[in-house]
Amino acid sequence: MIYPTRLAVLLAGAIAPLALLIALAVPAMWPAGLILLALLLACCALDMLLGVSGRSVSVSAAAPHQAGIGDSFPVTLDARFAGRRPAAVQLALGVSGPAEAPFGLTAGG
Fold first, then answer.
1. 28-39, pLDDT tens digit by residue?
2. I need a labelling partner for 57 at 20 to 30 A (CA). Which of 31, 74, 77, 91 fits?
3. 27 secondary structure, DSSP code
4. H or E stretch including 79?
5. Which of 35, 9, 10, 12 is nearest to 22 (CA)?
């Protein structure tokens, strides 16, 4: 999934209402609002092209080989980037219901 950067969100928050205000305040200037929206789309496209590709990252996980039922245990995620490294990264480990241990690890009991 592609998420916009903070700059793209701030630009959208500034440009979109400005385009609407121009169209409402001076109806004859509605093309200026369209130009602003085109500028916003161009900025978002540039943001997408300059972002790090999901294909350039490899993620690995490390966890204990045994864990008791109901025990909590740490899981370490490691992300390595083939090209340019982003300034910040968000990783999420989504688990619902019973989880299978990765890489042949087993649950202890």
1. 988 888 898 899
2. 74
3. G
4. strand 76-81
5. 35
Name residues whose C-beta falls within 8 Å of residue 20's C-beta, 6 or more positions apart in sequence: 33
Contacts of 21 by beta carbon, 8 Å cutoff, 6+ apart? none
**Cα gap 23→33, rounded to integer Å:** 6
Q: Given its phi and psi angles, is residue 103 left (phi above 0), alpha (psi -120 to 50 degrees) or beta?
A: left
Specify which residues 58 forms β-bridges with.
80
Nearest Cα residue to 45 out of 78, 69, 11: 11
Query: Amino acid identity, residue 34?
Result: L
Give yes or no for a contact between 8 and 47, defined as CB atoms under 8 angstroms apart.
yes
The residues facing 61 across adjacent strands are 77
**SS3 per residue for 47-68:** HHHHCCCHHHEEEEEECCCCCC
Flag whether the pTM goes above 0.70.
Answer: no
